[in-house]
Amino acid sequence: MENKITVKWSGEEYPITDIEENDTVLSLKNKIHKLTGVRPERQKLLNLKFKGKAAQDNDIISQLGLKQGFKLMMMGSREEDIAEVSQAPENMPEVINDLDIEEEEVEIEKAEIYLAKIQKRIETYKIEELSPLREGKKLLVLDIDYTLFDHRSVAESGIELMRPYLHEFLTSAYKNYDIVIWSATSMKWINEKMRLLGVTNNPNYKIAFHVDSLAMISVHTPKYGVVDVKPLGVIWGKYKQFSAKNTIMFDDIRRNFIMNPQSGLRIKAFKQAHLNRNTDRELLKLSKYLEAIAELDDFQVLNHRKWEEYRSMHKKCKKSKRTERTDPPSQT
Ligand code: MG
User: pLDDT confidence of 318, banded at 50, 70, 90?
Assistant: First the structure.
């Protein structure tokens, strides 16, 4: 039988020409294994159907009614790629492109590799707690550069580059959230910047711990290639009280939360501190949002892309509740 199938996997095409009359799906998988290194049990053959259902291992290829030159879409990872988890820190580019990557652009076929990388970080990344975590608190994870601080502008002192209302914001957030700082730089710089901004040892709130670039992982996106991201799974793996249900992360680069898009809120970048210092009120507005959502049992119902709408809706609800009440509100 002269039937050619082209397997599409991980951006490459693998032609298979030696398919025999009685070959089963399993024997096709074995041929694919030889070409790609992906073991049969890890292969997901997406568009291989028999009578409208996913073809089974013992189905006969010649009975599937495939057209000449059929393109077979495969997902699956090689063993060595799953096991190979780099211990070495990924090189951090000095300038990080601000790419607005959509979550669906992550290749799902690589998911197992990423989960293995996250697992490795959970096991090897050491967290030094600066202050003890508190029971019943939610988790707020904050980026530094362009989120809390304009790190590119020149100024006499760090305070000039600080995003307005930073301390008010942290003081307010601390009521309901344990606060973690996660920056794509080295721990030395994080410590230095936090000290400079007067966050370290601030009497009004405490930071639970800092996380640096070594806890990040590289993921491959078809459009932009390899990018380094901040997977919340590393923190969730170490602190079981936290999950997507009670964690929110702020970053000015959306791709940083590509592994957990639902938990991320992309904050407007704070740049050109000198021009924007007097008008930027993002942190003030966001502290209200954090306060409003803190009463929820599960953050997974939220769409942080619409945080401003949520906030105004919440305000209206509160107002109408207040006017409905017959007794005067005890507090405003
Ligand atoms: Mg940033």
Answer: low
